[in-house]
Amino acid sequence: MDPRVITYPLAEKRLDNGLRVVVNPDHNVPVVAVNLWYDVGSADEAPDRTGLAHLFEHLMFQGSAHVRSGDHIGLAQAAGGSVNATTSYDRTNYFEAVPTSAVRQMLWLEADRLATLRETVDQASLDNQRDVVKEEKRQRYDNVPYGDVWHRILALSFPEGHPYSHPTIGSMEDLDAASLTDVRDFFAANYRASRAVLTLAGDLTPEQGITLAEKYFGHLPRLPGRDRPHVEPLPPHEGVPRQEVSAAVPRDAVHLVWRLPKAGDPDLEALGLATSVLGDGITSRLHRALVRTERAEGAGAFTMSLARGNSIGVASARCWEGVTPEALEETLLETCQQFVDEGPTDEEHDRAKAQFSREWLTELSALDQRADRFGQAATLHGSPEWVNQRLRTVLDVTRQDAHDATRRWLDPANRAVLVYRRQEA
Amino acid sequence: MTSTPRPRLGKQPAWSFPAAREHTLSNGLRVWVFDLPGQYVTSVAMALDLPLTAEPAGSDGIANIAAHALDEGTRALPGPSYSETLEGTGAVIGAGVSQLATHVSIDVPVTGLVEAFPLLADAIRTPALADEDVLRHIGLRRAEIQQVLANSAQLAAALVPAAVFDDRWRASRPTGGSTATLEAFGPEDVRAFHATHYSPTGSTLVVAGDFAGLDPLALAEAAFGDWLDAGPSGRHEAPSGAAPRRRLVSRPGAVQADVRIAAPAVDRTDPRWAAFHIACSVLGGTFQSRLNTELRERRGFTYGVSMSTTQLRHGGYAVVGSSFRTEVVPEAVTEALRLLDVAAKPFTAAEVRRAASYLTRVAPLRYATASGVSQQAVVLSSMGLDWRHVDESMALIRQVTPEQATAAFTEIWPEDPAVIVVGDPALADGLGVEAEAAPAL
What we know:
The structure holds two protein chains of two kinds. Chain A is built from 15 helices and eleven strands. By secondary structure, chain A is α+β, with helices and mostly antiparallel strands. Chain A has two domains: about 10-215, CATH 3.30.830.10; about 240-420, CATH 3.30.830.10. In chain A, helix 1 crosses helix 4 (about 125-140) and helix 3 (about 105-120) runs parallel beside helix 8 (about 205-215). Chain A is globular. The model of chain A has no long low-confidence stretch (mean pLDDT about 95). Chain B is α+β, with helices and mostly antiparallel strands. Chain B has helices at about 60-70, 80-90, 115-125, 130-150, 150-160, 160-165, 185-195, 215-225, 275-285, 290-300, 330-340, 350-360, 365, 370-380, 390-400, 400-410, 430, and strands at about 20-25, 30-35, 40-50, 90-95, 100-110, 205-210, 245-250, 255-265, 305-310, 315-325, 420-425, 435. In chain B, helix 9 (about 275-285) crosses helix 15 (about 390-400) and helix 12 (about 350-360) packs antiparallel against helix 15. Chain B starts with 20 loop residues before the first strand and ends in a 5-residue tail after the last strand. The chains are: A alpha+beta, B alpha+beta. At the A-B interface, helix 2, strand 5, helix 3, helix 4 and helix 12 of A face helix 2, strand 5, helix 4, helix 10 and strand 10 of B.
């Protein structure tokens, strides 16, 4: 069996109110993954209301016209489901994976909050979840060594005011300033059927899936959708922008950062393979040059796919005890430069494809992750069929494509640099 | 407005844990094969019956180093050529060490299974464990300890075993060893440890996935059939509890404190296990648990609080874990301890019903993938149980009454559990303890 011929059956329908419905029948286990991708993320926030998209996501669990606070998760869990939501730069996703017995209830819960949250959200919920989100910020970012690394990488990569220049979690000041009016306005502007993709993946037929979507979401009003705001791509970095931070971290660390093309650009898949050769796993160039030689405790490279203007590429390493960040940066740069000059070998390129195949198929083997990928595909790539095509697309990337993309986008001359220096206690 | 009333739940679909085809190779290695249609990424996992009591005295961490250096080259494929060959099949290899066992596994698309299967066997049976690779892994473990010391949540978690078990027992000490014990052994010792303790006796090989016409048993026989028995490993200990205490580990200026409240508990063979498991779920296993509802949803003290259990072959422990902004830590700890006083507020029928419903109905989802099935199977085999335990324990969980859950929890959970706080030293007064410097790990 050639893994590139694995395709998942799909049915698709757009309801009259604009909701896109995707159904992927899979009868292997009696479970259905329900996934709503809303086309709104932190990139849609006003500059003085950072964190609002994510704070709003929390409020979606605080009850709606027919659901008490906490019951959304409570009902899903009591039914044997997993349930959560996440907010990113370009989207907010809400998802439940449940036994077939609970699908209707999950759709009803999702529809109730989409229909009524604007009227029901109140100050007490906002105040409580503002505190919870601030604790989340402390737990995940402020109280963790290197916790602000991604925030700094964004700030290095994008000018102030750019939709990606601020982190999704937002700032404490903006979280404090968020009012009930902001929340209601955010809902009114962004949450509507025409800005969402509903995916059902699992043990149901396409007809059942579409009928259920009509039944629970069909009555929602038809409101205009939108074209995602165009953001002009930024050119590669010039002049090596550099930031050095002194922080309570266990070891000095160095990050090289590049601006890459946005999601959907064919170069980005080639760069995914290239960064895997450069920095994924113990056969990678960076591991050999830095970890095997005991210059770094850890080293890696990856791409972060973003939808507006540019994505980001990063190569990182953390100093081995006694190694200076200057020495580490030099070897990191040499390794990247050599990779740009040579490109991957045939063997490296084939290994990267084999590893990508397994990672991609592993993701799709779980219904909840597969459903999420369909939502992503429909929202950002035009069609859920992108999921069925992606493996073929990546396996068709030639060694030459990967080398060309590497030369175009990962030239060390076009890097930005972030250095963490260990603050002595 | 929503036009329909809230739908009732439909009929719960029938489900049971996938049945394994069971086989024992001539050398005693147990093999479980799970056929899972549609799971194109197969999972092959070895659970070595290798409790950490097998480590030589003073050489804590040697099992962990051995496991992590397995893929750094084998006798047939030295150095990076091993991982290059393995990765070329699409496989990823992982190794992990717990108090009970060493687990080594690969996930690989079924198209690469025939090639990858013997490579897994190579890593387990004939790793090179070359000097430079072993020494590097010892260095990496030292570095990892520094990372743990710098990370509030990881440090709090690392302090739990010593807080629940008396220091006579291996289970009270870090699975990966400490900076001091890493000095006690070198490459030669690691190779000897491997030669003595990696053995088919008591070990289980789990293979799960959609095999598309391949015969996994034949692959297992070819890869492991002539693996010679090296004799039994260490004994599984039954650790006794430590004297409970409170400690505040100082992290000056921290904006949050990580808190763990912990106590010894029971293993899965204890007759009270199902009732205790339900109790922990009601207290901290779900979003609407008593702890999360009060400390997150009512008071906004935390992003989340949970209670989890860890089972050993004999005994185990339970832990409440969370982090709170510094100002509210004393109040949060007091409140958490109050919520853990189940005698004062016994479990209700509705709470027990909801917890049982969650714990049993979530199974089809949890075990829907090849790696989900194989991971659960190796964990159970390491506890001396088999895969049938999943269905058996669900049947037990469904029968637990509120009275049983209350009785099990109040019997097992002490009135004075250990409390570990990693946070600002100014919390000392509020918590009634002296702040101490971070311990050497």
